[in-house]
Amino acid sequence: MTPVSAPTGDADLPDIVVILADDLGHADLSCYGATAFSTPALDALAARGLRFTDAHAASAVCTPSRYALLTGRHPWRSPLRSAVLGGTDGALIAEDVPTLAGTLRERGYLTAAIGKWHLGLDWQLRDGTRRRIAPEAGFRPSMEADGWDVDFTEPFENGPLERGFDHFVGISGSLDMPPYCILSGDRAETVPTEEKTPRVTSQRPGPAAPGWVDADVDPRFAREAVDWLRRTTPVGPQDPPRFLYLATAAPHRPCLPPEEHRGRSGIGPRADAILMIDDIVDRVEAALENSSRPCLVVFASDNGAPTCYPEDGALEDHLPNGALRGQKADVYDGGHRVPLIVSGDGLPARVDERLVSLLDLFPSLLAHVEAIAEAQRAPRRPGERAVLDLDGAADLLRPSSGPSRVVGATAFDGSLVLMREKETACFSTGSGGFSEPVGVPTRTDGEEGQFYDRAADPRQSTDLWEAAGARRREMVAQFIDETGYGDLP
Fold first, then answer.
1. In what order do the strands lie in the sheet with 423-426?
2. In the chain, at which end, N or C, are there fewer CB atoms within 10 A of the end residue's CB?
3. What pTM, to 2 d.p., does this model score?
4. Mean pLDDT, the chain, integer
5. Does residue 268 contact residue 23 with C-beta atoms inside 8 Å?
6. What would the mean pLDDT of 196-207 be, rounded to a whole number?
């Protein structure tokens, strides 16, 4: 349970910036082992703060990972139990679910979401109805929908402005799904009236704004982020702190960096896009320099990198997930193990080897803010504090020791992965995602699956499922006890 406070004018509350890259692998930065190119801004950020070596997204794919990050809840608590939303699917975060942005806004923060949303919007349809997601589990997304049934002249409902953000500029889904248009506030900035011609094999056709250029999207997000930070810069204790959630479209496909970044890496467009992200981080940090408040910057990825698209860059030159087994969408570490850097506001510079989850960000940031606020005000009156029921641990920003925790993640097909410091249990006999074997039935009855020794076998090459029955059952029991997860054995 994490406390929530009423707004105050606490002078030492930090500006908080969370930058979330899309499909960036665990080894895609030079501070995480990349050698084919360098990421100096992110390397410097890591050198000044906490660099986590065993951080995991709550899912190996976009939508459920982002749901967990912004709500502090396991993705299987939402109606979406597998896959990702399409660009015209309804809003996934229910109205009564607290968000990180909304909770910080209650603490007096100005809040902005810029970039990729991919958590659904309740669009107005041409037939006069509105697209919504029913709260029951088992919702099936429309990833291949072309979007022509949406009335883009009308505002959408239950978007970022209704989920805790004061300001929003972004896109509804990934750059490979319609609609291809910038959203501002609660509507399309320019109504998409043209048919999009796909640039790569995985890009879907659908409505596009006139003059739409894929390569212009992340530069636009960078400008919007910098402009918002400069426009809202606090100059004294009377000015509120800010929370910026900046979600880049890159390096998710299509990897089409703008002209000034093309060819910079020398190994392909995906690496060029990563260098663009490094530049964006540098620009955002520069925009924070004049703030009167301390600044806390978080950088992470929503899941692992895909390695099944050779046109993005030759894998002999660079392995996005390093030596980890698997890729985006998989139950294996390559699917959900991600870079995580947290820097600023007095945090020490160190490498943190703890097993952590991006679920931990919400409760940890909130606990950090609460600790600062508590130090500056009188004790609360009885009944003044509410509580939030969050799934993550609140100790990400400070050293901790205690009983070994169980961290959960999900694959593209919904398969559950449970991890402890020295072991991983995958409740799937296949990859659950993009790697072979694909499409193998998922089992959650305990009879089949995969079990790996994380300490002795980091590449997950030796399956110990049969021999590890007792350890597996212990992990499951602990996870169910901690989370209330359903019908696992």
1. 407-410, 416-420, 423-426, 450-453
2. N
3. 0.94
4. 91
5. no
6. 88
